[in-house]
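User: Here's a structure from my thesis project, written as structure tokens. My advisor, Dr. K., wants to see whether a designed sequence matches the one we expressed. Can you design one independently, without my sequence as a hint?
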């Protein structure tokens, strides 16, 4: 099974209710695969899913976690230790986040109860640092402050603090691409970071369930995720209140509590991440996309740059339309790549071209997805897509994308992408 196929299967199993975009997964290759794995990581605790699907952000809060011991609501003195040694060997399969068992399931529940404000915690399930069916170390439950029951959960992990996926988690998502209510990300004096994200269980808001989270990553590589909802469960339960109960400041205080330190120290050290793949180190595809789109004379109202991929939102006065590009180098024949280009049109220079027009797959109402996928003989792959909406989650603003299929093909087959060949 190819990497892309394995990734798709892993995501289908990990994301309860999340259906991966197969074409996009393949198009992204290893770089996007690693990012999505991080974002869609789920912690299954005692049979209850604690959905920790990061939407591209995380953060850190100085104080308790790095400090000495202290009470649940106390703030210990910051004591920045040297980062722990990282292992070049990935953790053993089947035992993510497992340590020696120094922290029990019951202890995790006790700590969460101590950190929550006045109220009642029910259906509490913890998974300590020992191996077992619960997967990652964490705790979840349903908390009621008298204003409506709300699911809450905490997940602990060790990460490479300098890794590419960690950097992704510590960055607020692009507001032009994702629909959410608020996000803040801070870098503190000791090097820790904290991000508080206020969004929705489903980005297209097809249900009013809100998902708020704080994610902490310290220089030592300790990661704490705290998440809450405005419903008794993350999915398939009606909302019980307008907003989740814990304000951002409370989420931060729970994430940086020194109570979690003993469990974090018992978890195995993170393994070093391999560098993210890109067409060429330090080279952005955005300037080429900008130059090609300028030739069509359609105003650009928003744009973004992610190195090997970029997007622009066009508006010709008839509604917004997103155009995206992703460039990969060194793509080899075989497996999923060959299947994607089966029946492709072959240009005189040997470039394979496949075009697709399908409904959008991210939930936006009446969204269409037009796609031109190209593979050059040297292994450079350029994927250009257009939508009839400002992003894939938003409802359509027009009947068709602003660019025609012929124009998308012009962009995808431009010789300007030769810059990114290996």
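Assistant: Designed independently from the structure alone:
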């Amino acid at each position: 099974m190819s990497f892309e196929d394995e990734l798709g299967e892993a995501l289908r199993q990990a994301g309860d209710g999340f259906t991966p975009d197969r074409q996009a997964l393949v198009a992204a290759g290893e770089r996007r695969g690693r990012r999505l794995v991080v974002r869609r990581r789920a912690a299954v605790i005692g049979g209850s899913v604690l959905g920790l699907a990061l939407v591209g952000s995380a953060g850190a809060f100085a104080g308790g976690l790095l400090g000495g011991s202290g009470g649940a609501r106390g703030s210990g003195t910051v004591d920045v230790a040297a980062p722990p040694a990282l292992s070049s060997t990935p953790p053993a399969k089947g035992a993510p986040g497992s340590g020696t068992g120094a922290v029990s399931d019951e202890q995790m529940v006790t700590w969460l109860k101590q950190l929550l404000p006045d109220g009642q915690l029910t259906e509490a399930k913890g998974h300590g640092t020992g191996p077992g069916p619960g997967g990652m170390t964490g705790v979840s439950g349903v908390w009621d402050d008298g204003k409506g029951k709300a699911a809450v959960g905490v997940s602990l992990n060790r990460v490479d603090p300098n890794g590419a996926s960690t950097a992704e988690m510590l960055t607020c998502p692009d507001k032009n691409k994702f629909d959410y209510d608020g996000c803040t990300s801070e870098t503190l004096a000791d090097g820790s970071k904290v991000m508080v994200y206020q969004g929705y269980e489903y980005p297209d808001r097809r249900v009013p369930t809100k998902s708020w989270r704080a994610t902490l990553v310290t220089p030592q590589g300790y990661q704490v995720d705290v998440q809450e909802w405005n419903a008794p469960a993350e999915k398939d339960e009606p909302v019980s209140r307008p907003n989740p109960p814990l304000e951002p400041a409370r989420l931060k205080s729970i994430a940086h509590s020194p109570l979690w330190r003993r469990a974090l120290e018992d978890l195995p050290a993170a393994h070093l991440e391999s560098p993210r793949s890109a067409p060429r180190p330090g080279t952005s595809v955005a300037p080429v996309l900008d130059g090609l789109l300028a030739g069509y004379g359609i105003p650009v109202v928003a744009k973004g740059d992610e190195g090997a991929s970029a997007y622009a939102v066009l508006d010709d006065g008839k509604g917004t339309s997103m155009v995206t590009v992703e460039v990969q180098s060194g793509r080899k024949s075989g497996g999923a790549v060959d299947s994607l280009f089966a029946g492709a049109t072959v240009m005189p220079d040997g470039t394979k071209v496949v075009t697709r027009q399908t409904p959008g797959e991210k939930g936006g109402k009446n969204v269409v997805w037009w796609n031109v996928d190209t593979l050059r003989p040297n292994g450079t792959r350029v994927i250009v897509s257009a939508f009839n909406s400002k992003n894939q989650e938003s409802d359509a603003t027009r009947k068709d994308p602003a660019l025609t299929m012929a124009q998308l093909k012009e962009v995808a087959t431009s010789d300007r992408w030769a810059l990114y060949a290996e």
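When you compare it with your expressed construct, this may help: The chain has two domains: 41-68+93-266, 286-420.
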